[in-house]
Amino acid sequence: MDFNMKKLASDAGIFFTRAVQFTEEKFGQAEKTELDAHFENLLARADSTKNWTEKILRQTEVLLQPNPSARVEEFLYEKLDRKVPSRVTNGELLAQYMAEAASELGPATPYGKTLIKVAEAEKRLGAAERDFIHTASINFLTPLRNFLEGDWKTISKERRLLQNRRLDLDACKARLKKAKAAEAKATLWNDEVDKAEQELRVAQTEFDRQAEVTRLLLEGISSTHVNHLRCLHEFVESQTTYYAQCYRHMLDLQKQLGSSQGAIFPGTFVGTTEPASPPLSSTSPTTAAATMPVGPSVAGLAPPGEAALCLEEVTPPASGTRKARVLYDYEAADSSELALLADELITVYSLPGMDPDWLIGERGNKKGKVPVTYLELLS
To answer: What is the dihedral of CA 171, 172, 175, 176, to 10 degrees?
Structure first.
């Protein structure tokens, strides 16, 4: 009991001494041991790494799960060390609603058939999103959390110990200074000087030891950056895979809708007018939404790869043509295609029976097939 009381009293005394030293430093009434410039740079880099890791982690969580309530729920499950229940993605929920709507409105009607096709595509998109979220969480979010909850906590603990050792060291320096001043006034040897010098040596040793431990941990931030760099590459890879899957699913859906749309609305061309990025493959471009002028049928016209296009027989339709701006460079695969340069303007039109992914393009006296995804159709 007496031992515990003495220990508590000693701890209270040390805490009080540190508090006094810290307060006097803040008011400029005590000297402070400064760390070297390299050490300060290590501290600044560690703080910056921690702050940006937190921001990147939070925003990635928002990207993967925009619903704040769902994020809170997942956080609680994680803290309770329980498995997060499987959650239906927005795409899968939309697919469910579309399928139910088709069933009620008539699956044999054109609208019902289209709802079913879109529902199947949305379901595949939802499954791809689920895989992406799972992969990104394991390969990217988990390492960031491990750093903040593991390595950073260790670094913070050792930094606090270093701060305490520095306060003890500076307090010992202040006591030695006072003891020497008192000795000079008394003109006799003061035992307090010997005691203060001994305490200073001990404090200096403990400070140096703790400074070395902290320095090694701070230098380990370089390894953290290497690890996070690898995780970032894996995140980009998983995101690339996800968007590539989405592109393929939507391309398949567009082709299905394009064929059925042509039967319902002859002479129209269905798709998107402004693709956000070049297609994954120049041989399989997606379609663009616009109603293109349709020219007279040309003998021998067939989708690319099935038969050669007779360019001499191709003439602009009587209903007129449209202008298009080229979005990306395109190298013609054969003589039936027209090579394109980004930002140039060309004249385009469609022909009956032509593959909906392609148009006829004209530039000066040159003409040939051009992929729709490389174009922005102008009004």
So the answer is: -150
The residue among 299, 303, 293, 296 whose CA lies nearest residue 324 is: 293
pTM of the model as a whole:
0.61
Cβ contacts of 218 within 8 Å, gap of 6 or more: 39, 42, 43, 45, 46, 155
Q: DSSP assignment, residue 151? A: I
d(CA 257, CA 357): 12
Instruction: Read off the tokens for 345.
Output: 């303007």
180-200: average pLDDT: 75
Using an 8 Å Cβ cutoff, are 323 and 345 in contact?
A: yes
Residue 377: name the closest of 336, 346, 353, 339 by CA: 346
**347 φ, ψ to 5°?**
-100, 135
Q: In the numeric block, which tokens belong to residue 336?
A: 């039936």
Question: What integer pLDDT is reported at residue 194 of this predicted model?
Answer: 83
The mean of the pLDDT values for the chain is 81
Report pLDDT digits (tens) over 106-145: 999 989 999 999 999 999 999 999 899 999 999 999 999 9
CA distances from 9 to 122, 131, 195, 286 (A): 69, 58, 20, 78
Burial-class residue 170 by CB neighbours within 10 Å (0-12, 13-18, 19+): buried
Q: Which residues contact 125 (CB under 8 A, 6 or more apart)?
A: 91, 246, 249, 250
Q: Looking at the predicted structure, is the pLDDT value of residue 295 above 80?
A: no
- As a whole number of angstroms, the distance between CA 344 and CA 338 comes to 13
